[in-house]
Amino acid sequence: MPLSLNSALDGLRLSGIRRFSALAVQTPDCVSLTLGEPGEDTPPGVCVRVGEDLDCGLTHYPPNNGFPWLREAICAWEAERGVLLSPSNVIVTDGATEALFCAITALLNPGDEVVIPTPAFLLYDSLVRLARGVPVPLDTTAHDFQIDPQALARAITPRTKVIVITSPNNPTGCVLDRHSMDAVAEAARARDLYVICDDVYGELCYEPGYQRFSAAYPELADQTIVANSFSKPWAMTGWRLGWVGAGEKVASAMAKVHQYAVSSVPAFLQHAAVEALSTSVAPMRASYQARRDLTVEALARMGLPTVTPQGAFYAFPSIEGLGLASEEFCERAIREAGVALVPGSCFGGEGHVRLSYATDEKTLATGLERLAGFVSALR
Fold this sequence. Notes:
Number of domains: 2
Radius of gyration: 21 Å
Number of helices: 13
Order of helices and strands: HEHHEHEHEHEHEHEEHHHEHEEEH
Strand content: 5-15%
Distance between the termini: 58 Å
CATH superfamily of the largest domain: Type I PLP-dependent aspartate aminotransferase-like (Major domain)
Largest sheet: 7 strands, mixed
Number of strands: 12
CATH topology of the largest domain: Aspartate Aminotransferase, domain 2
CATH architecture of the largest domain: 3-Layer(aba) Sandwich
CATH class of the largest domain: Alpha Beta
Shape: globular
């Protein structure tokens, strides 16, 4: 038998976000607005707990799914937000990436289809392909990044098994309205579909009345998988901590994937995770909202149409009137203006670029100034 590799890898692309971030690093004096990396540091009280646990010798194997007291804390935190999970059905994961990996691997058989409203984070498409499923993009650009029920119905076939939703969204920052969520819930109900909710930006929603899908439709609890992370709200991206929760049947299957993929998350990080759950993210949210306002105002002055982000820390302006594809736009912005963005094509949203305003305000202001000069020169 000839030496070969897993053919499921053949169609996967390396991260375009990382590519343009690397180009920024390689370009002297370039301002990078690429990564979804909080400019703030992890709250000090969270970091202190790690030192305490190391001093106490908490360095041995923890339970695969996480210590019971952490899973109980996660469930209490979720319950405050209307999401009811059982500690026995929660798995502490290596970030939301592993949470989503566990969910998709546990659910899919070869050929199963997954509807992914786009623009969307590339991870979903890649994980579906790795599981030998079929990603089905659902373009939302014509509806201000909301889900049109008719378009969703057309995307669903007898092979459809899962719908993935992210609200607030990466890369648009948009929050799904009740009309969009009703469309997903009705499809899940009528066609016996699973709904994977990537809720990593839920704590960074700026608008009143925000409600997560799992809280809005508790009757679909056995069909809903909730993935979340400590990375964004508490500026803990490097900690690689998250969780995933579901009904008993799905949780049991995901626990097997988790056990054989990573075994567990480090023992000495888990009290710190409990500390994070009790730490308010309101100051960070207010800071991101102020940067959102600064960004939206600057893009308006540039004449770049932008659907106002309602959460997360991204803007997704349209560049369709400038005569460049998004990748060329971003490459030239780095070379000619010293500012780095991410092409919309990386998210299935050609004709747009993603701008991260997670960085500090001074860096953001400089980047926006350089972007304005670049756009003006193109016109």
